[in-house]
């Protein structure tokens, strides 16, 4: 597979604190990659590193196949647009003037394509209105428009729907889908809301405490959510040992109940448990929600 971004054992420490702790992720070309994790998991840190705003403490990454230590890395970065944390816009300027400013910053020879970008993000009719009078959603779209100047084919968006109302969320979602489908732009989008990402992502990376705990495609996520069984046994401690040996994901609910997140050979599991004097009382197939899958990967409260 062709990858736009790959990170290899990437770490970033702030004094003794590891914000990224050996993170390895792979963003395929053409993907909408949902980068999901709780607040503080390390999403913005990763984005700041790949944008060149900070240096890794150890490990490496490649952008378009070029290593971060490569002197020519700047060339790869030119193919990338990003909105990190809040969009960097001039509030006293109109949408058009904000874009013109970005053309100048990038040293582009003309303002060609400016109207197209404004239209693409739905801000072509904002005329003389200054950005400070825009809604949060319009500002976010202006931030994306600025990131699109220079025609990047990789767009990085840090929590783009944070704080938006439902209409604003729909507009951003539709814009991202349009950019991906019509302009073949690969998108990396971070969020702590899996449900929102599930409406557009083709691939996912789940991050917890600075590490990727699972990377999978949308189809795999869908399958994983379907394949969940609820099992009732005499001792979930024994069940956990057996599931560990079988390398299956699970979540212990009580002393006698657990979820198993994989396609399980039930006969094999029951026999292994019987060998250890653990009785099986019931096995039930369960359609797992995205939400509980998320919790099984990154644990507890999703937004702490
Ligand atoms: N400059 C810094 N100095 C010290 N600690 C930092 C610094 N930047 C980030 N951190 C810490 O690193 C951890 C990861 O932060 P990061 O912003 O990457 O998380 P996040 O997943 O993007 O969360 P959020 O959704 O809240 O932005 C947090 O615990 C944060 O407090």
Automatic annotation (TrEMBL):
The protein's matches in InterPro entries, at most eight in alphabetical order, are given as: AAA+_ATPase (IPR003593), ABC_transporter-like_ATP-bd (IPR003439), ABC_transporter-like_CS (IPR017871), P-loop_NTPase (IPR027417)
Molecular function GO labels: ATP binding
Please state every residue range assigned to the domain named ABC transporter.
5-234
What UniProt keywords apply to this chain's record, in alphabetical order?
ATP-binding, Nucleotide-binding, Transport
Which ranges does the record mark as transmembrane? none
Q: Does the record carry Transferase as a key word?
A: no
Keyword Cell wall biogenesis/degradation applies: no
SUPFAM superfamilies associated with the record? P-loop containing nucleoside triphosphate hydrolases
As for family, the record states: Belongs to the ABC transporter superfamily.
Q: What is this protein called?
A: ABC transporter ATP-binding protein
Q: Which organism is it from?
A: Dorea acetigenes
